[in-house]
């Protein structure tokens, strides 16, 4: 398990929407759910029940990253920039949580009200 799934979402997104975004990112990169070590998001999204419920259903933890603004992302969302100050919450959270030397496997996947980006840890 060396993947971190960065999650961004609109307020009130359900666990099903979060998992759908995760599954889309996994399908795009040819990875399996079992490879995901944890979900990651930013403090602004820490209270979103859909993210917590998705993690519980998947049997993994959620990491709240505070240094997501320090990483370079691949995509730019006007909504994400306006609300969170980040080009992509999902990409930034994944990279920040995965640590130094991590890399994004692909740009974020978006399904409805949730986005997911997968970062692979260096170790």
Automatic annotation (TrEMBL):
Gene3D superfamilies: CobE/GbiG C-terminal domain. Residues 3-119 form the CobE/GbiG C-terminal domain. InterPro entries: CbiG_hydrolase, CobE/GbiG_C, CobE/GbiG_C_sf. Signal peptide: none annotated. It comes from the Bacteria. This is Cobalamin biosynthesis protein. It comes from Roseococcus pinisoli. The lineage of its organism: Bacteria, Pseudomonadati, Pseudomonadota, Alphaproteobacteria, Acetobacterales.
């Amino acid at each position: 398990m060396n993947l971190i799934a960065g999650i961004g979402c609109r307020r009130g997104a359900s666990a099903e929407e979060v998992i759908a975004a995760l599954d889309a990112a996994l399908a795009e990169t040819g990875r399996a759910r079992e490879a995901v070590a944890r979900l990651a998001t930013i403090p602004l999204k820490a209270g979103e029940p859909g993210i917590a419920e998705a993690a519980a259903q998947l049997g993994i933890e959620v990491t709240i990253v505070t240094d997501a603004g320090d990483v370079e992302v691949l995509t730019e969302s006007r909504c994400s920039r306006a609300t969170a100050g980040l080009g992509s919450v999902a990409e930034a959270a994944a990279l920040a949580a995965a640590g130094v030397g991590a890399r994004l496997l692909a740009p974020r996947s978006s399904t409805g009200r949730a986005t997911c980006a997968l970062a692979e840890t260096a170790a």
